[in-house]
Amino acid sequence: MEGADAMQLRKIEDDKGRELFLQGKLEEAEKLFISALEEAKEGFGKGDPHVASASNNLAELYRVNKLYNKAEPLYLEAISILEESFGPEDIRVGSAFHNLGQFYIAERKLDEARICYEIKRRVLGLNHTDYADTMYHLGMDRVFKGENRKKRRKKGICVENCRVLHLQGKEKDSEALVQDSIRILEDAGQGESIMCFKRMRYLAQIYLKSNRFEEAEKIQRKILHIMELTKGWNALDTVITAEGLALILQSTGSLKEAEELLERCLEARKALLPQDHIQIGANLLHIARVAMLNFDQVRNIDYPEAISELDKAKDALHESIRIARCSLDKLMKQNRKIRSYGASGEVGNNGRVPLVILLQASDALGHLEITKKQLQGSKQSEHSSNIEAENALHKCISAYKEFVTERSIPESPEINAEYLKCLKHLLSLNSDSTSKRKQQSAGVNFQDLREEIKRLEVKLSPPRKRRI
Which InterPro entries does UniProt cross-reference here (predicted)? Predict the structure, then answer.
C-alpha cells in the first residue's frame, strides 16, 4: 500500500477508534487501533513516526484498561522511533516521555516516572508552561532522597509532579515544585488562569496541613483579590474563595474579619442560589461557629455580649438544621418519585453533605445548650437546658437511623465520625445527670449507646499492619 493511501486509511481508523474510545466501547476501539498500527507499519515502515503515533494511541487504550504489560512496550517503541526520527531534544520526544511518565504513575513506579519527567524538563526547558504542569504533577508524588531544592536545580533535576511527591508524603519538596509551577505560569501571563488558581489552592492546602496559617492566608487573599477583579461577587467561585479565607482567619483568631466575610458570603449565596440551598445551610453553620468563638472571648468580661453571641449562634444553627433537613426531605421525595416509576432511585452520595451538616449543627446546638446552662449557673435553668441539649443530640440519632440505617445514604467515614461525636456527647451529658434525669432521658438505652460507640470506633480506627 502506498504511503498516502496508508495515511488516509490510518487516519480514518484512528478517528473512529478515538470516537469509540470516548464512547467507552473499548473492545471495538482496540480492534481499530491495532488495525491502524498494522497499516502504519505496512504503509510507512516500522521506524516511521506514524507508527509511533499509532503505538501511543494503542498504549493509551491499554493503560485505561489497566493492561499494563501490553501498554509499556508500545510506549517504549513510540519513544524509540521518535528519538531515531527527530533526535532526543525534539518536543515530540518530550511529549512521549510525558505519556510514559503518566503510565508509570498509574503503576506507582515513581522512580521511573521521575526519570521520564526529568527528560521532559530537559526537552521543554525550565520556563515552559507545559513544564510547569509537569512540576505540579511530580510535586504531588515524589522527590530525590537527601537532596535539597538548590542541589536539584544545580544538577538540572526536576521532578514532574507534585502528585508524585504528595503520594510519598514529601510535602516540602512538593511545595517547592508547586511554587515554581505557579511562578512559571505567572511569568507566562497565565496568573489568572484556572490552572494557576488550582495550583495556588493546592499550595494553600499544603500550608494549612502544616499549620502555616499566615502563609495560607496570603495565598488565599491573593486568589480572592484576583477573583474579585475578574469575576466579582456575583460568581460562586468568588464566594467559595472568600469562605475559604474566612475559615483560615477563624483558625488564626481573626474573628471579626472572618465573621464579616461569612456574612457577605451568606448574602451573596442568598442572591445567587435557590432558597434553602445546602450551601446556605453550611454557611450558617460556619457563622454559628464564629459566634461561639466570639462568645468564648467575652464570656468572662461581658455577660450581655456573651448571651447575644450565644443567641446568634443558636439562631444560625436552627436555620442550618432546618435547611439540611429540608434538603434531605427533598432528596427522599425525589427518590420515592423515581421508585414509583419502577426505577431504582437512591439518595446515595447526594445526601452525604446535608446529612453531615445536620449532624454537625445538631451536635453544636447540644454543646451550645450545655454552655448556656453553665454560663447561667442556676438550678432553675439546669433541668431545662439539659432537655434542650438532649433533644438536639437525639436529632443526630434519629437522622442517622432514618437515612443511614435505612440504607438511603451509604455510610462514610465523615458521616460516622460526626455521628460518633454526637453519641459521645449524649453519653457524657447523661453520665453527669442524676439517676432521676437518666430515667427521663427520652428512652435511651445506654448499653446500646455504648455498643454503638464501640462499633463506630472500631470502624473508624486505622487498619493494623500485619506482622510478617
Answer: TPR-like_helical_dom_sf, TPR_rpt
Q: Which of 242, 248, 171, 174 is nearest to 215 (CA)?
A: 248
Instruction: Indicate if the alpha-carbon torsion angle 427, 431, 437, 438 is positive or negative.
Output: positive
Q: Cα–Cα distance between 311 and 327 in angstroms, integer?
A: 24
Q: Give me 354's grid cell.
A: 446535608
Distance, in Å, from the CA atom of 61 to the CA atom of 381, rounded to the nearest integer, reads: 69
* Residue 162 bridge partners (DSSP): 141
d(CA 142, CA 173): 8
- Domains of the chain and CATH, by start: 1-86 (1.25.40.10), 90-210 (1.25.40.10)
Q: Give residue-wise pLDDT tens across range 174-223.
A: 677 777 778 877 777 877 888 888 889 888 988 888 899 999 999 999 99
pTM for this predicted structure: 0.66
At position 306, the amino acid (one-letter code) is: A
Task: Give the torsion sign (CA, 80, 108, 208, 317).
Answer: positive
Angle among Cα 99, 103, 108 to the nearest 5 degrees reads 140
- Per residue in 70-110, pLDDT (tens digit) is 999 999 999 899 888 888 878 788 778 888 887 887 787 77
User: Can you read off the three cell numbers belonging to residue 307?
Assistant: 448571651
